[in-house]
C-alpha cells in the first residue's frame, strides 16, 4: 500500500486525497486498544470522510468480495465448581465411589448447560435473546438475491455442495438446502456455540473420579441491534433465574457488530475499481461474514459510535491460509473460474485506483 | 503369609487345614482373567470350604474391618460424534462461526447426558434402573446399628465430620447428617457418576471451534440383585428411546457385586481372631464399601456362580497410601485411638490364627 503512494507522488506529484493513517498490530489480540485509540484521537479522526481497509479480496476463483461491516462476537467461559457451589467436592476430585453420598458439580454443569439451548442445540433459550435482532432487512435479502450495480448476486455464486465437501458435513441445520436460506442463517443469525468442555478424568482407560469442577467455553455470534453487554447480562440473569447463581461466568473476549451501508462512498469506489478492471464481485450485506473468508477486523471502532464513518475493505489480488505454515499471496496473476486473479502489481494498481475513484465522489 | 506356613510347619509339623493357593497379579487390570481361571479349575476349586483373603485390615485408628463382599462396578464411555450422527462436522472441528448453519455434536452430548440423571444429579433416570435393588435388608441395617458378636456397630465409629474434613466437602447429598443415613447411602445405593468429559478447545484463552465430537466417562456402582449386563442394556435402551441411537456406548470395565453372609465360617474365624487379640472391629454388611478403605478385590468370582464359596478377608496390621509414592505398612506395632495397631509380627500371627480357628469350625 505504501508503494502506491510513492508511485502516485512520482507520477502525479501529489495524492488525489488527504489521508490519515491508522496502523495497528494487535489484530490477533482482538484489537483491544483500538477503542481507546479512537477515543483519544476522536477529534482528528472526525475529520475523515471514510475509512478504507486495503486488503486483497479476490477468492481463489477470482471472485472479489469487498468487506463490509462485521458481526458481533462474545466469548465466555462457564465454570461449575464445588467450592463456589458449596456442595460436592470443593478442592480436588475425590473417589468416584463417593458419588453415592456426594453431589456432583460435573452433573450440575451438564444440567446448567442443557438449559441454555433447545433440544436440537440450535435455538438459544435465554429469555429475551432474540428481542433486538434487526436483520435481515428487506434490502439485505434483495442484495443477496439480486446484487447491486454490476455485482454477481451471492445466491448465484454460493454453492452449498462445495461448502459441505470442504467442511466434511452431510447437511446443514434444519436440513436447509436452498442457497438463499443457508446464506440468510450464515449472515444474519445469532448462535451460542459450545467450543470446548473439560473436567475430571480425560485420559485413557478408566479412573473412578468425582470431579470438583467442570469448565466450558462458548463463542456467541450476534447481530444488529443486539448489544454485547446486554447479552452478557441476559446470560447471567438466565443462570441466576435457573438456580445457578454459583456458576462462574467469565467474559474472555468480544466486540460489537458493525453495520455499514453497502452504498457508502468507500464501498462504491471499490465497485468502481472492480468494474474498471473487469473483475466479478459479490456484495454481502452489512454484518456479513462470508464463509471462512472474512478477516477479523475491528470495523466497529470506526463504523460505530462516536465516529460513524463509512468503511469498506478490499482490493484485487488473492492470498490464503492465514496463520498456517503455507500462508501465501499471489505474486503473478493467473486465470481462474470467475476471471483473472491479479498479482501484486494489480493489487497495487487497484489500491491507487480506489483513492482516485473516492476522490471523484 | 508364606512365612506363616513355614513357621507352622516348623513348630507343629503340619498345617491345621488343607490349602489351595490362588495367586493373582492382575488386580490393577480389574482381575480380568479370574472368571476364566475359575471356569477352568472349577472342579478343583469346588473342593474348598471357603476362601480367605489375607490382608491387614486395621485402619489408622486401630479399628479392624474385615472385608466382606463387594459392590458391582460398571465403567462406560459415551461418545457423540458427527460421523455417527450424520449431522454437524463429521471429521474434524470446524470454525465456531459455522454454528449458525451447522448442528453441534457437542450440544447433543450435553442434552443426551442431561437425560440420564435428575436435576440434582443424584437419581438415575433410566427406566427400570432401581427395579432389582434388594439391599439393604433388615438384617443389614441391624448389623450397622447393633453390630454382631463383640463388634463395634458401624454407626458408632463412623464420624461424618472426619470424612467431611478429609474430603474437603461441606455437606452430603440431600443434606444427610445422621451417620446411619450416610452409611446406608454409601453402602447400599447405586450411583451414575460423571468421571470425566472432554471435547473441543480446552486450552487457555479463546479459540472459536465447533467440535465434531465430545466424550465422557462414567462409573456406575450397583448392588444386589442388579445385573451388570441388564444395566448396560438399560443404558442402551434409554439412549435409543430418547433418540440417541447414534451415541456410542462402550463398556470399559466392570464386575458384579458379591453378596457374602457376614456369618460365614471364614468371617467368623476372623472375628475369633480379633477377639482373641483384643482388637476392636466393625462389621459392614455384605456389599459394603467402607469409606475409602475397601480393597478392589474380585470377591464375586468366588462368592458368585458357580462356586458360591464363603469368602472373607482380613488380618491384624495396618498399611496405607496404596499406589502413592509414600505407600507404607506398619512394621512395629503402636498404640492408636481404638487400641493397639499390630506390626508385621502380629499380622503374621493373626493369619496363622485364622487358619486354626477355621479348622475348629
Overview of this structure, please?
Two copies of one chain form a homodimer. The first copy, chain A, is an alpha+beta fold and 361 residues long. Chain A folds into two domains: 224 residues, Aminopeptidase, CATH 3.40.630; 128 residues, Alpha-Beta Plaits (2-Layer Sandwich). Chain A contains 13 helices and twelve strands. In chain A, the strands form five sheets. In chain A, strands 4-6-2-7 form a four-stranded antiparallel beta sheet. Chain A has a two-stranded parallel ribbon with strand order 1-8. A two-stranded antiparallel ribbon of chain A has the order 3-5. In chain A, helix 11 packs across helix 13. Chain A starts with a helix and ends with a helix. At the A-B interface, strand 3, helix 5, helix 9, strand 4 and strand 5 of A face strand 3, helix 5, helix 9, strand 4 and strand 5 of B.
Question: Any key phrases for this structure?
Answer:
homodimer; 361 residues; alpha+beta; Aminopeptidase; Alpha-Beta Plaits; 2 domains; 12 strands
